[in-house]
Amino acid sequence: MAEKFDAVDVIRTKRDSQRLSDAQIDWVVDAYTRGVVADEQMAALAMAIFLNGMDREEIARWTAAMIESGERMSFARLSRVTTDKHSTGGVGDKITLPLAPLVASFGVAVPQLSGRGLGHTGGTLDKLEAIPGWQASLENARMMEILDEVGAVICAAGSGLAPADKKLYALRDITSTVDCIPLIASSIMSKKIAEGTGALVLDVKVGSGAFMKTQDDARELARTMVDLGTDAGVRTVALLTDMSRPLGRTVGNALEVRESVEVLAGGGPADVVDLTVALASEMLRLADVEVTEDDLRGALADGRAMDTWKAMIRAQGGDPDAPLPTAAHTHDVVAEHDGVLTELDALAVGVASWRLGAGRARKEDPVQTGAGIEIHVEPGRRVTAGTPLMTLHTDIPELFERSLESLDGGYTIDPDAAEGTGARGDVVLERLG
Ligand code: URA
Question: Is 390 within 8 Å of 348 (Cβ atoms)?
């Protein structure tokens, strides 16, 4: 059968800064999924979109075409309403782990279809795989059963959801076209809408460790995604949150699970707890469940969220009480002189952790479960020469050198600064509904 369009004409349209028609978008996304449009042609189109943008209607149509490329799931037969969260990714972002069981402990269903890490940001599935026995892949029927029984499930998104995005995302990754608002928004929202959730809270990260380095760009991405979700009938809100420094005190798979369990036991770092509570209250509000911040903190303190966590981990074959793996080697980074730690850069710590083996460079690479970084001193605190600032963990000691190189210049100890300089302000910067 003759094709409706020629890829070269579609590329030229966008190269010359013109609008793509609905028919062009439908065709090019479908033809790329079928393998009729070649990778090099789609790469050229992605770069043209990166340089010349897409308007709101084009983004909506592109998203719809990516949804159409695969299956649509439905949670309609569940006995509970569903509410979901998506983060645009950051360093030390383990929030899904305490958040899903916390929200589920209030009676709603939280289906978290998650991915693996690529580059300096970690992946939720890689983190959970640090738990002995835990399995990321579930049949749809089993996922529904767990959602009915336990309320929360975190598992791998099936290959049937938005396959066009899967192909395009891998291509963008190797052609420097990831950090483009129309392509990020359509990529994330095509998967979320295809997944069939009724409500969605977006955690849009801002700062050095995030795709969006400025609050203005993050706001534009958030606005685009909220509009796409709302237009598709998904109740959607977004929080812009700080990713200029790592979240919490750990970066790396098993280390982040350990910190998440601390939060579920009523402890943990204040920024992780605050963000978990802020996102949980938005998710529950969208599901029409009235809760106060005190109710949420109470469910962390009294073990209700922990009970749901343990049930969720067991339902996927994991042993929530088993010791977590640790790396074979550690190396302390200490303060060179007295002063106040005024800066700890998220990107530098993320890359350093990745170089220790916590992340992967290509999607088929393995990750080390025990590798990563423990942070001992929060920005704003005074230190003296020799104070341990961070501990690096890895199974391969040869990796310390490259990791230390990426920390070089990634933190500042100012001998003249007052205590408190550089301390974290509110983790939630802005809300868009
Ligand atoms: N996450 C996605 O799923 N897609 C993007 O484009 C960026 C982050």
Answer: no
Topology of 84-322 in CATH?
Answer: Pyrimidine Nucleoside Phosphorylase; Chain A, domain 2 (3.40.1030)
- The pTM of this model reads 0.95
Strands of 84-87's sheet in order across: 84-87, 199-206, 235-242, 428-432
In the chain, the largest separation of any two C-alpha atoms, in whole Å, equals 73
Compute the distance from residue 261 Cα to the ligand 1 centre, in Å. 27
Q: Answer for the pair 228, 237: CB distance below 8 angstroms, yes or no.
A: no
Name the token pair of 394. 């890895």
- pLDDT, tens digit, 9 for 90 and up, residues 353-369: 999 999 887 777 889 99
Domains in the chain: boundaries = 7-53, 84-322, 329-414
CB-ligand 1 contact for 50 (6 Å cutoff): no
**Span 177-220, pLDDT tens digits:** 988 999 999 999 999 999 999 999 999 999 999 999 999 999 99
Ligand 1 close to Cβ of residue 102 (< 6 A): no
Give yes or no for residue 184 CB within 6 A of ligand 1.
yes
Q: Which residues are catalytic?
A: 86, 165, 172, 187, 191
Ligand 1 pocket test: pick from 187, 191, 217 the residue with the most ligand atoms within 8 Å of its Cβ.
187
